[in-house]
Design a protein that fits this description.
The protein has helices at 2-6, 9-75, 81-107, 111-128, 139-279, 283-309, 312-316, 319-334, 351-372, 413-424; strands at 337-343, 376-383, 387-394, 428-433, 439-446. The protein is an alpha+beta fold. The chain folds into 2 domains: 2-209, Four Helix Bundle (Hemerythrin (Met), subunit A) (Up-down Bundle); 310-446, Histidine kinase-like ATPase, C-terminal domain (Heat Shock Protein 90). The protein has a 5-stranded mixed sheet with strand order 1-2-3-5-4. A hairpin with a 5-residue loop joins β4 and β5 (439-446). The radius of gyration is 59 Å and the shape is rod-shaped.
């Protein structure tokens, strides 16, 4: 059973087709062997029957020849009739012995053959005894000998030959019946093999149809996934363009409204302070103090913009302090308690991994602030020798997950952006949520062998 689990569907199909072909080949070979054996057996049965019949006919013919030669002996007036009779009897007796030997070879030693041989040999011995008194005997005595000695012995031998012929025919019929039985048995075995081939063929066909239907369903599902992914990517690209434009607009507004106006006011205050100082007025000191306050506010604005684009502490202090600052800022801004826990987090991480983790946490906290209505958020960052994982869990209202773990209904582009960041680094992002049970987001990223040696990639504009 464990071997079947290790086999793929394609391997099982190959095995099924191979077994079916093997059974068909075996059935063809078996059919050929059955046909060859049947033909050989049938020919052997008919050959033995014909040979036995020929031997019996030969013996019967020789017995009649012996009787005829005896009759001719008594009817002939030739002076050498006894010599001719002796030569004739020796010849036919020799032929009869040969026929009896062939019959014994075909049937094997048995009582019927022995009895027939005894009668035939007695018949020839009786005919050969005529040579002792045939010279000078009268035809009447010869006729009496034929009627009293030759005819009964010949008839007895003929009766045995008739019985032997009937037995031969009966044996032939039995052999034919046995042959028919063995042929039916072989045909039944061949039918079983063909039935197994058909059954295996049906099983393989059903499995092939089921497998083809499964592949078709899988292809349709993959096509739907690709179509959905393409649509999501289009939405994500549009969202990215919108985010970039919004970020540029926000940055331009900040530069113009905050920094530009502050610098303009600073320039005016410096001009007023310079004029007051030249005139020796005491208001110069107050003007300079106002200019210093404007300069500090400008520095604070520049710092906020810099933190919005990319926090310097991510490069200066590392991922842990940057996440801690982000959690504190989130708690301060939203009033939601946020705790950060670290387990084996090292400073020497690739810049791409630090950026990915920071932006995913930033987006997750943004979603939590916007949608979850949570009171507590927990962030756990765990680093193993070859993997970095981040868990972000809240106790908010949660949501009903749709396909691919995305929220049901419109939206979810922020999650798509996080998943795209994870996929770029060959990582994964899993989202577990249910209505009323909060939400847990898990980010898993593989680490290179030499963590921290990867070249930093350009910072992306946050979504």
């Amino acid at each position: 059973m464990s071997v079947l689990r290790r086999l793929s569907k394609l391997d099982i199909l190959w095995l099924g087709f191979g077994g079916m072909i093997a059974l068909l080949v075996f059935s063809a070979v078996e059919a050929y062997q059955i046909q060859t054996s049947a033909s050989r057996h049938s020919v052997e049965i008919h050959r033995r029957f014909a040979q036995k019949g020929a031997a019996l006919s030969q013996i019967r013919r020789l017995l009649f020849l012996g009787s005829i030669y005896t009759r001719d002996l008594f009817l002939s007036s030739r002076p050498d009739r006894t010599g001719v009779f002796k030569a004739q009897i020796e010849r036919v007796r020799g032929e009869a012995e040969t026929a009896l030997g062939e019959l014994g070879r075909l049937t094997g030693p048995n009582q019927s053959t022995s009895e027939l041989r005894a009668h035939v040999q007695g018949f020839w011995s009786n005919l050969e005894s005529v040579l002792d008194w045939a010279e000078g005997s009268s035809p009447a005595r010869g006729f009496d000998f034929i009627q009293r000695e030759v005819m009964p012995r010949r008839n007895a031998a003929s009766a045995l030959l008739t019985a032997y012929t009937e037995a031969n025919q009966s044996a032939f019929a039995n052999s034919q019946a046995e042959f028919d039985g063995s042929r039916r048995t072989a045909a039944g075995r061949l039918v079983v093999i063909l039935g197994l081939s058909v059954a295996l063929g049906l099983i393989v066909a059903c499995f092939s149809v089921v497998h083809a239907a499964s592949l078709e369903r899988e292809s349709v599902r993959r096509l739907e996934e690709v179509t959905r992914a393409r649509k999501d990517l289009q939405q994500l690209s549009a969202r990215l363009v919108e985010s970039q434009e919004a970020a540029r607009k926000r940055l331009a507004r900040e530069l113009h409204d905050e920094i530009g106006q502050t610098l303009h006011a600073l320039r005016i205050e410096i001009s007023h302070a310079q004029a007051a100082w030249k005139a020796g007025e005491p208001a110069a000191e107050a003007r300079l103090e106002q200019a210093r306050a404007l300069a500090e506010r400008t520095v604070e604005t520049v710092r906020n913009i810099s933190l919005l684009l990319r926090p310097p502490m991510l490069d200066d202090l590392g991922l842990g302090p940057a996440l801690q600052w982000q959690a504190e800022e989130f708690s301060r801004r939203c009033g939601i308690r946020c705790t950060l826990s670290e387990d084996g987090l090292a400073d020497a991480l690739p810049d791409s991994h630090k950026t990915c983790v920071y932006r995913v946490v930033q987006e997750a906290l943004h979603n939590c602030e916007k949608h979850s209505a949570a009171s507590n958020v927990r962030i756990l960052v765990r680093q193993a020798p070859r993997r970095l994982s981040v868990e972000i869990q809240d106790d908010g209202r949660g949501f009903e997950a749709g396909p691919e773990g995305l929220p049901a209904g419109p939206g979810g582009l922020g999650i798509l952006g996080m998943r795209e960041r994870a996929t770029t680094l060959d990582g994964s992002l899993r989202l577990d949520s249910a209505p009323g049970k909060g939400t847990q987001l898990t980010l898993s990223l593989p680490l290179p062998e030499a963590a921290g040696t990867a070249a930093p990639n350009p910072e992306e504009v946050p979504a």
